[in-house]
Design goal:
By secondary structure, the protein is an alpha+beta fold. It has a single domain, classed as lambda repressor-like DNA-binding domains (434 Repressor (Amino-terminal Domain), Orthogonal Bundle). The chain has 4 helices and 4 strands, in the order ββααααββ. Strand 3 and strand 4 form a beta hairpin.
């Protein structure tokens, strides 16, 4: 399940997510996209780990492609970044990207 954090602005993900909650979820990110999403949001590995209940060692191994991650770990990462306004995109030819969704903007003269 996705829960607001203490400040109420950004989500945390718990292990309570059901398969029904995952329907329509954002694409599963690649390790490079996880690193890019963290950079866009200005989050440390520790911050991501705190929000989804993952060990830092696991996140580091995912980002460094040291081992095959569990699908459930990648789903939790995808849900966290999606809820925080990051979208993972994939293009023909194997190219990939990360987009920050803009929800508010202001015109400047």
């Amino acid at each position: 399940m996705i829960h607001p954090d203490r400040e109420g602005s950004l989500p945390t993900i718990t292990n309570e997510s059901s398969s029904k909650d995952r329907a329509g979820m954002a694409a599963i990110p690649t390790p490079a996209q996880v690193r890019a999403a963290r950079a866009i949001l200005g989050w440390s590995q520790d911050e991501v780990c705190r929000r989804i209940g993952m060990s830092r060692r696991t996140l580091t191994s995912i980002e460094n492609e040291e081992r095959q991650p569990r699908f459930s770990s990648m789903v939790r990462l995808a849900a966290l970044f999606d809820a925080a306004g990051v979208e993972f995109v994939f293009f023909r030819g194997g190219r990939q990207g990360v987009i920050a969704k803009i929800t508010e903007f202001e015109f400047v003269d």
